[in-house]
Design goal:
This protein is of the alpha+beta class and 186 residues long. The chain is 38% helix and 15% strand. It is elongated, with a radius of gyration of 30 Å. It starts with a helix and ends with a strand.
């Protein structure tokens, strides 16, 4: 008789198992999927905003580097390429005028292509302190920042020294003044 009671108790433990049913697990997975679907667009917008901010910062860094180059190395003239801006002065120890992540033209940074388009070389420009020959420096430049894809960023940026401009499509290379159809970044 004891054996029958023990067996009945064991059977009832098996049928009253602790755990989740398949339906409960499916409901939890569906809820997680809905939450992930709602969060994804926000995350993509934040990523695009971060990429755009990085592109604007890169253009500001290039503007600052060009101003420093003109004052300290180019004798009033600008570097014709990002590679020249990255080249350190030949005398004394030092680093280039711009960081190594922007030392190639064009440079890719945070899903944006950063390109420097130099104005015409000034024939009377002197040699620079970092090895550029006389007559190779420029008096104007344009730097553009274009997203690599539609998911990289929604705006295009450009600068020709000082003000950074934005547009919903590629900015025309403009050595002076405001590029057509653009507005200053606020």
């Amino acid at each position: 008789m004891v054996d029958k009671k023990k067996r009945a108790h064991t059977v009832s433990r098996i049928t009253k198992s602790q755990g989740f049913t398949l339906i409960e697990l499916l409901i939890v997975v569906a809820i997680i999927g809905i939450i992930a679907t709602m969060a994804t667009p926000g995350l993509l917008r934040m990523r695009m905003s971060g990429n755009e901010t990085s592109a604007i910062s890169s253009l500001r860094a290039i503007n600052s580097a060009q101003a420093l180059y003109a004052v300290s190395c180019g004798r009033g003239f600008y570097a014709p390429s990002l590679a020249v801006l990255a080249t350190p002065p030949t005398e004394g120890s030092g680093e280039g005028f711009i960081s190594s992540d922007l030392n190639v033209d064009p440079s890719i940074k945070s899903s944006y292509q950063i390109s420097l388009t130099a104005g015409p070389a000034v024939s009377g420009s002197p040699a620079s302190c970092n090895g550029m020959a006389a007559g190779t420096l420029v008096s104007t430049y344009f730097v553009g920042g274009d997203p690599l894809s539609a998911n990289s960023g929604g705006r295009y940026f450009g600068t020709n020294g000082g003000t950074i401009y934005e547009n919903a499509s590629t900015l025309a290379v403009t050595q002076t003044g405001t590029p057509p159809g653009s507005s200053p970044v606020q």
